[in-house]
Specification:
By secondary structure, the chain is mainly alpha-helical. The protein has 2 domains: about 5-60, no CATH class; about 70-110, no CATH class. It has helices at about 5-15, 25-45, 45-60, 70-80, 85-95, 100-110. α1 runs antiparallel to α2 (about 25-45). It starts with 6 loop residues before the first helix and ends in a 5-residue tail after the last helix. The model has no long low-confidence stretch (mean pLDDT about 80).
Length: about 120
């Protein structure tokens, strides 16, 4: 089985960045920086790129939620603001899996805007 290296990521980023109009100057700067990052990753050896990206992502993680000091929901929202998308997904899924059927149905109803 052939493994794709980081070059595949750069190709995907190139297609993404070819969109000619940007929403704002900040969006354009972020797109240029993202392309430069993808190009740099593509130039690295696959093993080196993995080690670098894993190290950077580990440092960017919010870590586990802290015990609530004030309001449980306020603390949860503050943590979610700091968490990476993968952290939010992992904690949300793990939490949802441990809800009672009634609470899970209530959560789904809430997420669907009360339409269920």
């Amino acid at each position: 089985m052939k493994k794709e290296g980081p070059g595949a990521l750069a190709g995907a980023a190139e297609a993404y960045l070819e969109f000619p109009r940007f929403r704002s100057e900040e969006y354009r700067r972020r797109a240029v920086a993202a392309r430069a990052l993808c190009d740099a990753i593509a130039e690295c050896h696959c093993d080196d790129a993995k080690k670098i990206m894993e190290g950077v992502l580990e440092k960017m993680r919010a870590g586990p939620p802290t015990p609530p000091l004030l309001s449980l929901m306020a603390e949860a929202r503050d943590w979610a603001d700091l968490a990476s998308p993968s952290e939010r997904k992992a904690y949300a899924l793990a939490s949802a899996e441990h809800l009672s059927p009634a609470d899970r149905a209530g959560l789904i109803n809430h997420l669907q805007g009360g339409r269920a």
